[in-house]
């Protein structure tokens, strides 16, 4: 990454030039920028890896981009990209590489990191995952009572849940034919509400659990896992409703009904997971960047390994583009620079993610973690407090639903919000029935019309409407709200992989410019530590008098509720 002795970004010459430029451009409306640049679409749009990135509706001009590219050079972005992809120790607080991109390298590639070619190990882990997937898809994985597994419940939280959940939902159309049916479910909440629903509906004889935890100490996941294990043991060793033959052993139940995915094989073994049912995870992969490896087991179970490898190939195509393309044509770099411009120079601190395709229902939630856990930092890589804004607040949901929810604020609220609109250009070509295909394609055109219309009116405001005479103030729209549109040629495993990698690399570039480390999450770790201490006090094993008045009152309210029965 950039030199440890570099100036903070706000002291760089390009930053100062951007501040002056922003003062000059702040009063210019987006409609004016479009009116003065007939080639604006061509100039601010790029296409790569099945994606079209339209940045023409950002509140910038040619000079802005020139200054931003100078800032990226001053901040050392080109050398930082090389450091990331070559396996340098870019995670400075934990002194290790961040090699999620290595998980999607082709099998014939090599990547020597500190004297070791890590590609072979990655490919071995994928091969082991494929063997497990093939057993389940062939109906050959049988539970302790001999019945084939029909349901797989993924127990994970954060990146071990959000990534696989998002991708399996997005690619549900790509389920392979002619396989033993296996349904995949997700349980992440520590309160047990999701898991309780599955335990009430699923047959323990045909249910398999995947414990996904990098450290294998995550209390959310282990609390669900312990409950699931007790449920299986109670049902399969005691109740004749499920076991017609003599009761099976606890060891066999745990062996046949649990798979572990972790960087701590000794902890998996201690919990009881059989060595050949353990999938490897590496310390140099952050949880929110982990869906490309064995954490992606639920994805492979839903779409099959062929489509899973296509997902990896799409991400790798974006990796190559990120590595090789000049910065002025580099999609992740340009997307990152638009964000820097909005946050640091236009003072826009809110960012909404708005997919116009129901299959991308969980994409906003996925990006919330990716961006805010990565770049929600307030100290530099050298440990100094920053005096400039870093990550904006991200939120979003499906665009057609959001139109009937929070778009009112976007169009007529008092603060600026930058929006990312995401949609596929083609859909429903594979529907066999002609009438159904025609109707569904009409609905897709309707979704695209709404997507394009919303970004247009956010940009132009009242000028997007035909002149129908004076309007009262409550029917006025100021416009001038910046947005980005990302179009997928078609939503496939390959283009989805490229889309996710686009945002991953955007986050990295912004972190380089802000001089922060996007690969740790000490704020999350602090919350875990304090929660463990608080749990001890709730359980009567700590000193409640050292708690603040509010926390003490909340705990005592819980104790009172327990006593009331």
From TrEMBL:
Molecular function via GO: carbohydrate derivative binding; glucose-6-phosphate isomerase activity; monosaccharide binding
Please give the PROSITE patterns that the UniProt record associates with this protein. P_GLUCOSE_ISOMERASE_1, P_GLUCOSE_ISOMERASE_2, P_GLUCOSE_ISOMERASE_3
Q: Name one GO biological process term.
A: gluconeogenesis
Report the Pfam families cross-referenced here: PGI (PF00342)
- CDD domains cross-referenced by the UniProt entry: SIS_PGI_1, SIS_PGI_2
- Its pathway? Carbohydrate degradation; glycolysis; D-glyceraldehyde 3-phosphate and glycerone phosphate from D-glucose: step 2/4; Carbohydrate biosynthesis; gluconeogenesis
Q: Which domain of life is it from?
A: Bacteria
Where's the active site on this chain?
373, 404, 528
Task: Output the Gene Ontology cellular-component terms.
Answer: cytosol
Function text: Catalyzes the reversible isomerization of glucose-6-phosphate to fructose-6-phosphate.
Spell out the protein name for this chain: Glucose-6-phosphate isomerase
């Amino acid at each position: 990454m950039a030199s440890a002795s570099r100036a903070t970004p706000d002291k760089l010459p390009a930053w100062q030039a951007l501040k002056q430029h922003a003062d000059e451009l702040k009063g210019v409306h987006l409609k004016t920028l479009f009116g003065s640049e007939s080639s604006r679409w061509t100039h601010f749009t790029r296409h790569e890896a099945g994606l079209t990135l339209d940045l023409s509706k950002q509140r910038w001009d040619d000079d802005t981009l020139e200054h931003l590219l100078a800032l990226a050079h001053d901040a050392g972005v080109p050398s930082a990209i090389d450091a990331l992809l070559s396996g340098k120790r870019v995670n400075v607080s934990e002194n290790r590489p961040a090699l999620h991109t290595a998980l999607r390298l082709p099998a014939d590639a090599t990547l020597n990191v500190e004297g070791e070619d890590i590609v072979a190990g990655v490919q071995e882990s994928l091969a082991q995952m494929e063997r497990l997937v093939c057993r389940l898809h062939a109906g050959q994985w049988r539970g302790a009572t001999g019945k084939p597994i029909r349901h797989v419940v993924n127990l994970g939280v954060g990146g071990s849940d959000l990534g696989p959940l998002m991708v399996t939902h997005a690619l549900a159309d790509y389920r392979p034919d002619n396989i033993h049916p296996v349904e995949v479910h997700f349980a992440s909440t520590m309160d047990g509400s999701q898991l309780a629903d599955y335990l009430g509906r699923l047959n323990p004889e045909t249910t398999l659990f995947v414990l996904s935890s990098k450290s294998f100490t995550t209390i959310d996941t282990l609390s669900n896992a312990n409950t699931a294990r007790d449920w299986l043991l109670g049902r399969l060793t005691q109740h004749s409703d499920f076991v017609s033959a003599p009761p099976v052993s606890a060891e066999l139940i745990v062996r046949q009904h649990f798979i572990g995915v972790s960087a701590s094989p000794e902890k998996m073994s201690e919990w009881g997971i059989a060595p050949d049912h353990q999938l490897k995870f590496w310390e140099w992969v952050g949880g929110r960047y982990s869906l490309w490896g064995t954490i992606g087991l639920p994805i492979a179970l839903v779409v099959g390994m062929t489509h899973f490898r296509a997902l990896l190939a799409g991400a790798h195509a974006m990796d190559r583009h990120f590595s090789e393309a000049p910065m002025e044509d580099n999609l992740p770099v340009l997307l990152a620079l638009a964000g820097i411009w909005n946050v640091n120079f236009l003072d826009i601190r809110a960012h909404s993610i708005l997919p116009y395709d129901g299959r991308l229902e969980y994409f906003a939630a996925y990006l919330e973690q990716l961006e805010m856990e990565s770049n929600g930092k307030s100290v530099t890589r050298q440990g100094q407090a920053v005096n400039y804004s870093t990550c904006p607040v991200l939120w979003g949901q499906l665009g057609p639903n959001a139109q009937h929810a929070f778009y009112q604020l976007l169009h007529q609220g008092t603060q600026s919000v930058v929006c990312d609109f995401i949609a596929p250009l083609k859909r429903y070509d594979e529907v066999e029935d002609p009438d159904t295909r025609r109707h569904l394609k009409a609905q897709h055109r309707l979704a695209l019309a709404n997507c394009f219309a919303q970004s247009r009116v956010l940009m132009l405001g009242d000028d997007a409407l035909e002149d129908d005479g004076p309007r009262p103030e409550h029917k006025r729209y100021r416009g001038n709200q910046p947005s980005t549109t990302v179009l997928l040629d078609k939503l496939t495993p390959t283009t989805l992989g490229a889309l996710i990698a686009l945002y991953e690399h955007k986050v990295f570039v912004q972190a380089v410019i802000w001089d922060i480390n996007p690969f740790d999450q000490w704020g999350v770790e602090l919350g875990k530590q304090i929660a463990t201490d608080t749990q001890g006090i709730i359980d009567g094993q700590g000193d409640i008098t050292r708690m603040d008045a509010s926390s003490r009152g909340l705990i005592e309210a819980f104790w009172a509720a327990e006593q009331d029965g």
